[in-house]
Write a structure and sequence with these properties.
Helix content is 34%, strand content 26%.
Amino acid sequence: MNFLKIRSRKRLLALYFVFAAVSIIFAIRLFYLQVFPSEKILNGQIEQLMGEIPITAPRGEIYDCNMVLLVKDATSYRIYARPNDIKDFENTAKVLSDSLGLDYSATLTKISNKKVGLVLIKTQVDNDIAVSIRDKLKDGISIEEDQKRYYTNGNFLSNVLGFTGYDHQGLFGIEASFDDVLKGKDGVLIYEKDANGNKINSGSEIRKEAQAGDSVVLTIDSIIQHYVETETQNVLNQTKAKKAMAIVMNVQTGQVLAMCTKPDYDLNNPTKVSDQFITSYGEDLYKTDADGNKTMMTTSEIQMMMWANPAISFNYEPGSTFKLITTSATLEEGVMGMDTMLFDPGYIMVDGVKINCYLYPKSHGSQPLHSMVAKSCNPSLVKMAMAVGKDKFYEYIYNFGFGDSTGIALPGEEKGIVPPNSAGLKNVDFATKAFGQGISVTPIQLMTALNASVNGGYLLKPLIAKQIIDTETGKAIYTYKSETVRQVISKETSDNIKSIMNEMVQSNSSLKNLTGGLKIGGKTGTAQKVKNGVYAQGVYVASFYGIVPYDDPKIAVLILVDEPKGAIYGSQVAAPPGIRILRKIMDYYDYLYTDDSANQSKIIPDLRGENVQDAIEVLKTLGIKYSLSGDSTGIITAQSPIDVEYANSASVTVFLTVSAAATSGTTVKVPDLTNMSVQKANDILTSLGLKVKITGGGIVKSQSPKAGTSVSAGTEVEIVCKYID
């Protein structure tokens, strides 16, 4: 018993000491917190006294390769409500919801919460709306400066540029891939507030200014992009296709000079789906459930499809354009030469499967390899691939970059689909790859591979950005350089591919006539599309890959028309706009100066024969003033001055005469064609609805009827031309 009492006293004594120790620790801690308060407590005290308003950092600007501004930030406003200062909640909610397109009930609930001193209503509000709100609501509203993204040309380059969200963060395209470069560092306004959370007008303020992001200079040339957008839109309208795509690249550097997909969207209103997009995509916008019922995609699903960039994400079977890859492998391996004779009976049998030539039941008979490729004979290409062998052929497929991303600095790139070279690969499946079936590629992937076949054999990483520059000083921070991935074929093989491409164009009279005498080489493709695992009848992708000049390529274009209606062949649908793009680019490059010196003399370009809008775009880019006379639409038929040197564009004005094409019952004045090239004169006269009779070649020396004569549609104009010695 005594033992138990002693133990009890010891326990009580121990508890006493523990309690005393804990009390001392708490006392010391309380004293420490009062003298040396923690960050958390300090933050709590600051929050009771101070409020914050974020200052959005301006994003960097985006320019084309000639420093033409494409994207910039514009001043907008943030609208805040101060619930404790609002006198009429219903009216305030109505004005805000009506002005800003917000839900009335949600707005009323938000501004009625008096537990907060300041509540954000909306960001990126345009100036006129902010002014209207300020005029209508005198109490309980604060308006602070904000930033809003502005795209200078709406739909222009939309699938490449992308856009930003409400938080000013890049969501698609360049805006997303270069978001870390473009976004700046946000600032903050710290202000003193009262017990109700309201800003004290005479209170203290601390302002940390925002820092603007850096700017991006693209490899895109706005003038070339304009040519491409015009042609792709025209071909989309004419063929009623699902979409039309085009890429223009510098063959020697890998720089992307233009990239376009139509239909597209307005970057300043990116959530709006255009009527043309709905019409063009048609059935593809519907989903089929297990019971076979069709329902239209949700708006967000359609928008995601619209915002994608098919030039880097569209997987398709390339068809005959891929024959240049097969030919490269054949010549490089030395299993056949350019003059190796091949016999085409109109078909070839592979493991019991008959693969026809497009001429079947006719045939190409016996011809050299270069002619068979130029004439796109499938049985001959199969023989070439078989001679190379499966393993070697697959090496070339991978070495040309198929089955892998190109590394272009744009989000959403697909890798294409290359079925593996397994033991189970059937001979017939291998055979069809020789002419571009049974393998899927993306446009940018095919473009870089085909460029390698004509630039000396070098696979280049495609470049979309040229420089990163300081937004304030304009000085370059980083310059992107051409990057060689690997050499795939020799220069000798590459030279042979260029020769075949020239032969392909020269052997097609309609394409030859379109070239206007320029050294344009090309290869067309017409590929049947796969839908639901089978080749769909009557559904094709028409394509054209072209280079200029063919003997020393500088520029290449790839144009694709997805599911054209009516004419389906690449030579009919894709080659004409592709060749027109190359011709316009070469005309443009005739007077494009490359010296960066501000004192470098430039030449006023000859714009006769150009569409008036194209001509205006060129002059705007060069900073040259212009004056128009004649029709408001049509082509340029006269110009002054032409081919004159100038050092300062501000001192030059170009006078342009515009004429519209003659139609039934109307007349047009015959333009002065003297000293024009025969190609330019021919283009102008045909654009005006007139017939042309050409005598000689070279430069126009005389014409009949004379310049200024009014003639009706279909009148023949004779031009006599001579070559300059």
